[in-house]
Design goal:
The chain is low in regular secondary structure and 101 residues long. Helix content is 10%, strand content 10%. It is built from one helix and three strands; from the N terminus they run E-E-H-E. The protein has a three-stranded antiparallel sheet with strand order 2-1-3. The chain is elongated. The N and C termini lie far apart (90 Å).
Length: 101
């Protein structure tokens, strides 16, 4: 597996990242001009990936049963809405109410 250096930002990493890929992947990326074969002795160009955690306030958000916030189809957090249940009055008429006439 060759080690390649990315020349542009890709989903695999930012510019300058050194990653391991399959031979056929390297051939495609090299022909596209977005990667080159990396020096096997110089690994100082490794770029560390950092995950940034941003805590959010769960107050006012709809929560799943496991306590995590509900996310809609577009990636937004769903606000908790006060559900008002309105009871309908039972109808006094129907097809069986005129018996005996």
């Amino acid at each position: 597996m060759p080690k390649i250096e990315l020349l542009t930002d890709l989903c695999s990493g930012p510019v300058g990242s050194i990653i391991d890929v399959q031979d056929y992947e390297f051939n495609v990326l090299e022909r596209l001009g977005v990667a080159k074969l990396a020096d096997s002795t110089n690994s100082s160009k490794q770029v560390e990936h950092q995950i940034v955690f941003e805590p959010i306030d769960l107050k006012g958000l709809l929560l799943n049963l496991n306590g995590t916030p509900v996310v809609d189809d577009f990636g937004a957090l769903v606000p908790e809405l006060a559900v008002q249940s309105v009871q309908k009055a039972a109808s006094k008429g129907g097809k069986n109410t005129k018996k005996g006439e």
